Amino acid sequence: MITIKKPNEIEKMRVAGKLTGDALKYIEEHIKPGITTAQINKLIHEFITSHDAIPSFLGYRGYPASACVSVNDVVVHGIPGSYALQEGDIVSIDVGVIKDGWNGDAARTFGVGKISAEAQKLIDVTRECFFEGIKHARAGRRLGDLGEAIQKHAESNGFGVVREMIGHGIGRNMHEDPSVPNYGKAGTGVLLKSGYTIAVEPMINAGTFKIKFDSDGWTTRSADGSLSAHYENKIVVQDGETLILKL
Ligand code: MF3
Ligand code: CO
Prior knowledge:
The protein is of the alpha+beta class. The protein has helices at 7-28, 37-50, 117-134, 143-156; strands spanning 54-55, 67-71, 74-76, 90-99, 102-111, 160-161, 167-169, 176-180, 197-200, 203-205, 211-213, 220-222, 228-230, 233-236, 243-244. The strands form 4 sheets. The chain has a 5-stranded antiparallel β-sheet, sandwiched between helices. Strands 1, 2, 4 and 5 form a 4-stranded antiparallel β-sheet that branches. Helix 1 packs antiparallel against helix 2 and helix 3 packs antiparallel against helix 4 (143-156). The protein starts with 6 loop residues before the first helix and ends with a strand. It binds 2-amino-4-trifluoromethylsulfanyl-butyric acid (MF3) and cobalt (II) ion. The site of cobalt (II) ion has 5 residues, from loops.
């Protein structure tokens, strides 16, 4: 079932979204060679709890941290640990909060120091995929319109769109209906209505779209070891232009 949020609920979701955005801005300043992924997680955890919010990832299906920190070929769900970032790495950071009962969920990929032109292109194209996709996130359009736009932009740049992990509805729960694939066919899929709130999150690999999992059951990597990037915000579907619930 897809819930339609009321204006006062959307306002609360905007506040939760602002907090995820602020957490990502805060952590960006700390992304330098030498910081460990566990230190990044600790800073994010403290940022969230000091803003009267709950880190929604911590304990979710047994996930052991407050952020996902995914380096280089790790697509998503990298578990923070002792790895220290190195110049030239790229790192995707995914943050979820519950503020006043409503969820925020957002991700960005950052470069560590000077990165290769190919890595920068992957980060840029992944961000562009998000914006290409949400052009179609309006009442009366379908999720296939959004998925096709994302897929076309990624593939026309020679990149692979991860299929097995997708975006999702979001609200009082982190994951709600509908599923929001980053691929598809225009004119197909769920019909969008005003008041739907969805997290759009392209995960784009520099090589194959295929993925594999580490034995920890979480860490998700590109199957060919190529770099991977992630860009996520939640949005509200309206009659007119899409509103990003993160300022
Ligand atoms: N942020 C992820 C998503 O967008 C979920 C994180 S999984 C968790 O769906 F286990 F880390 F919570
Ligand atoms: Co998400």
